[in-house]
Amino acid sequence: MTYYFRGKYHQLSNFFPAGFQKDGKRWPTAEHYFQAMKFKGVDEDYVERIRLAKTPELAKQMGRTRKIPIRWNWRVIKEKVMYEALKLKFANPAMKEALLRTKKQGLIENSPDEYWGIGKSGQGQNRLGILLMRLRKELKKK
User: Fold this and answer.
1) What pLDDT shows up at residue 9?
2) DSSP-assigned states of every residue in 92-132
3) How does pLDDT run across 17-46, given as a tens digit for each residue?
4) CATH of the domain at 39
5) CA-CA distance, 138 to 142, in Å (whole number)?
6) CA angle 85-111-118, nearest 5°?
7) Between β-strands 25-27 and 20-22, what pairing exists: parallel, antiparallel or unpaired?
8) How far apart are CA 100 and CA 93, in angstroms?
9) How far apart, in whole angstroms, are the C-alpha atoms of residue 79 and residue 73?
10) Number of domains in the chain
């Protein structure tokens, strides 16, 4: 069986309200953190505005702006940043247990995003699912 990040497994979504601390600041969701990191070192005020966004949907919308330039190396580091966000989120024992409960099953981000999810065609790269399976394997070893 394959698990999608909705319904019973919604905790796996970056929008799930499983906050964490990083550098002395509280991040409400992994989505907030990921979107804000696009602007780290470029516009720290905007990073903070994204961190404080009322919802992960708003954080995502703010992160998609190109009115403010993103980090010059974002394409190169975005997966590293996503993996860091996932490690921070799943350090929480309840979140870790939710991920480990999926055992060896395939994890699919069922979103229209062709890079992070499977896209509208169902043929997307599913990078978020792949990173979650990598983290699950790492957590099982510990």
Assistant:
1) 82
2) SHHHHHHHHTTTT-EEE--SS-TTTS-TTTS-S--HHHHHH
3) 999 999 999 999 999 999 999 999 999 999
4) 1.10.357.40
5) 7
6) 95
7) antiparallel
8) 10
9) 11
10) 1
